[in-house]
Amino acid sequence: MKVAGLGFKRDVTLASLREALLAVGGPEGLAAMATVSDKADAEALKQLARECGVPIRAVPAEVLARVDTPTQSKLIAEKFGTGSVAEAAALAAAGPRARLIATRVVSQDRTATAAIAEGDGP
Prior knowledge:
Layout: E1 2-8, H1 14-24, E2 30-36, H2 43-52, E3 56-59, H3 61-64, H4 74-80, H5 85-94, E4 99-106, E5 112-118
Parallel strand pairs: 1-2, 2-3
Antiparallel strand pairs: 1-5, 4-5
């Protein structure tokens, strides 16, 4: 199963999320999108998930904090305990033996990030 992990600022636009997803490989073959639980109800994310025809998987922040990521953002590490919300969410939602197939990509306006992981599912 392929899962796109998305990290974003509260005021993110659908266009920025879409741009990040396309830059990381696009929606083809995705089974779900994932992000930190407290942002899973963001309107732009819900619109993108509908557009791609996939569900959103909400990942608790304490789960993200236990995921090691190849990309390291000091700000994100301080706030979430992991180096990349997008990478950690993708890995967590794709299952226990998941691997990243696309590391974090950042939108041009720097409000959205996306990564893709593949795994056996939760």
